[in-house]
Design brief:
With about 575 residues, this protein is of the alpha+beta class. It has three domains: about 10-165, PAS domain (Beta-Lactamase), CATH 3.30.450; about 225-310, 2-Layer Sandwich (Beta-Lactamase), CATH 3.30.450.20; about 375-565, 2-Layer Sandwich (Heat Shock Protein 90), CATH 3.30.565. Helices cover about 45% and strands about 20% of the residues. α1 (about 10-55) packs antiparallel against α5, α2 (about 60-65) runs antiparallel to α3 (about 75-85) and α10 packs antiparallel against α11. The chain is rod-shaped and about 180 Å long. It comes from Streptomyces halstedii. This is histidine kinase. It is an enzyme of class 2 (transferase).
């Protein structure tokens, strides 16, 4: 039966670590014992050689070899046996030049030829080796035996029992095994600790799940319609999904880069880097309104999510415009009813001529104002915007004035962008002018064309913009309006500062659109109080003659009233 292999990543890592630890311990013991065995063999051979050299240096042995016969009770046998017992050698054998033994541990071997080749020591060479003989395997050494004149007269062979060497090696094994067991226990403990930590960090997933999780993660991150950017603890980009790359204009391969290296300085970079705190922060990038949330991670990094609110913002503005038009129609209906009642009263009083004059005057004023706007502003979207905003201004007790210099042809490159810019400026101006609750509150609009450039000014009689806030009003998230509450009509209180809940986007879009066309947007103070917003939009008009350009009145002269307080 095949052994059960754990499915969890932590269990597999534990088994691998235990196997590696065991293998390392076994390898370490093997690498330790092999040199130890060689060292013990070498030590035994050196000892045998030393005993042989000491025996050969005894002059009585060489003398006895020359003057006596090989007998068990001869002087050579007695001296060599004394040396053997004193040194603990296995044997000490003395031989003559013919290889005949003169001494041996077993006396019956005396007078017989040696069992191994004696040619090397008899030729004057010393040898040491591990070999087998009549007394078994031993560590042995052979040296030549010299007489008093220095001639070789024989040889001495000494053997050390190999069993004693093996016993020494075996005797060292318990200590080795104890050290190995301690190392194995420490390694197993570390492996268990690492396995437990890994199990906590991986939530007990299996190896087979990792690939599937990575595939699912990639599919999810690059398939959702919400931008995701992950940062490491050093603030470097770790991950960018397709939607985030599209919304921010980044390259999806811009990982391991710092945010400042791939994005220009500004509010968007500050929000992404966490230098601006808060939830659902609004920012504008490339003309898109984005909602940004930043969530720190446990390792010190962060994950930033981006939601595109451009379409929702545009729909909200269209809804606001529709709401304003509905209120304007309701006001017009109410005013129309009042006029009809007035006409009915005049008819009841039989003042027919006065009734006719009243109707002619009322219809003529409204028609002449709309016709005059249409004559000066030839683009239907822009002229309709002005007429509609005039009705809204009248409902809010603010007079909307179009200056006489206003001239705009119908050859606009992007009339919707101009409507967005002009609509935002008029809305802000109406809010500012309505705050004073004065009978002479008004908003002035001026539009004119110079070659292919459109210039527009919107001024109001509101509280104005302080010099220190004239740049801040064009940044994302900065608003002079209080946050709207559901079901509660905003009170006419003008506050300044960064506010949440989707405020502070209009003027930012105005500047972004102006800069997109290579123009600019700025705000200055109006003489007598209020603010003047000036926007320049180059390349907004298709080249051609400007209608009525030769009859344009000088700047600052003449006003066309298209809406007033009622």
């Amino acid at each position: 039966m095949r052994p059960h292999w754990p499915q969890r990543l932590s269990g597999q890592v534990l088994m691998v670590q235990l196997a590696i630890t065991t293998g390392v311990v076994v390898l370490a013991i093997s690498l330790f014992t092999a040199p130890l065995a060689r060292e013990l063999d070498e030590e035994a051979m050196h000892r045998a050689l030393a005993i042989a050299q000491t025996t050969a240096a005894d002059p009585s042995i060489a003398q006895g070899l020359l003057t006596t016969r090989p007998t068990p009770d001869g002087p050579v046998q007695r001296e060599t046996e004394r040396i053997r017992r004193a040194t603990g050698a296995l044997y000490v054998v003395t031989m003559d030049m013919r290889g005949v033994r003169w001494s041996h541990t077993t006396t019956a071997e005396i007078g017989r030829h040696v069992s191994t080749d004696p040619s090397d020591p008899l030729a004057g060479r010393e040898i040491k080796q591990i070999d087998s003989g009549t007394l078994g395997r031993s560590a042995r050494a052979k040296v030549p035996l010299y007489d008093g004149s220095g001639d070789v007269v024989g040889a001495v062979s000494v053997g050390i029992a190999y069993d004693s060497v093996r016993h020494r090696l075996i005797g060292a094994f318990p200590a080795l095994l104890l050290c190995a067991a301690a190392a194995l226990a420490v390694g197993a403990g570390v492996a268990v600790a690492v396995s437990r930590r890994l199990r906590r960090r991986t939530h007990g997933i299996a190896f087979s799940d990792i690939s599937a999780l990575l595939d699912e993660r990639e599919a999810m991150l690059h398939g959702i319609r919400e931008g995701v950017i992950a940062f490491d603890p050093r603030g470097r980009i770790r991950l960018v999904n397709d939607e985030a790359a599209r919304l921010l204009g980044l390259d999806i391969d811009m990982t391991d880069y710092g945010l400042d290296a791939v994005m220009p300085a500004g509010r968007t970079a500050d929000v992404l880097a966490g230098r601006v705190e808060g939830a659902d922060l609004l920012t504008v990038s490339g003309g898109r309104v984005l909602v940004v949330n930043r969530m720190p991670t446990a390792d010190g990094g962060a994950v930033v999510t981006l939601r595109d609110r451009t379409e929702l913002e545009l729909l909200g503005r269209e809804l606001d415009s529709t709401q304003g038009l509905l209120e304007a129609l309701r006001a017009q209906g109410h005013e129309h009813a009042n006029r009809m009642h007035t006409v009915l009263g005049l008819l009841e009083l039989r003042r027919y001529q006065q009734a006719a004059d009243y109707v002619t005057h009322a219809v003529g004023d409204h028609r002449s104002s709309a016709e005059e706007i249409a004559e000066r502003v030839h683009d239907p979207l822009v002229s309709a915007l002005l007429v509609g905003k005039a009705v809204v201004a009248a409902e809010r007790a603010v007079e909307l004035r179009v200056r006489a210099r206003t001239r705009l042809p119908d050859r606009l490159v992007a009339p919707r962008d101009l409507v967005t810019v002009l609509g935002n400026l008029i809305d802000n101006a109406l809010d500012a002018a309505a705050e004073k609750h004065s009978t002479d509150s008004f908003v002035e609009v001026e539009l004119w064309a110079e070659d292919t450039t459109v210039l527009l000014q919107v001024c109001d009689t509101g509280p104005g913009v302080p010099p220190e806030a004239r740049e801040a009003v064009f940044t994302e998230g900065y608003s002079t309006k209080p946050p709207a509450r559901t079901g509660v009509r905003p009170q006419p209180v003008r506050t300044r500062g960064p506010l949440p809940h989707g405020r502070g986007i209009g003027l930012s879009l105005v500047r972004r659109l102006a800069e997109r066309y290579g123009g600019s947007a700025r705000v200055t103070a109006r003489p007598g109080g209020g603010a003047v917003f000036t926007v320049i939009l180059p390349e907004m008009i298709i080249p051609g003659p400007v209608p009525g350009a030769g009859t344009a009145e000088p700047s600052g002269t003449g006003l066309t009233m298209v809406g007033g307080a009622r």
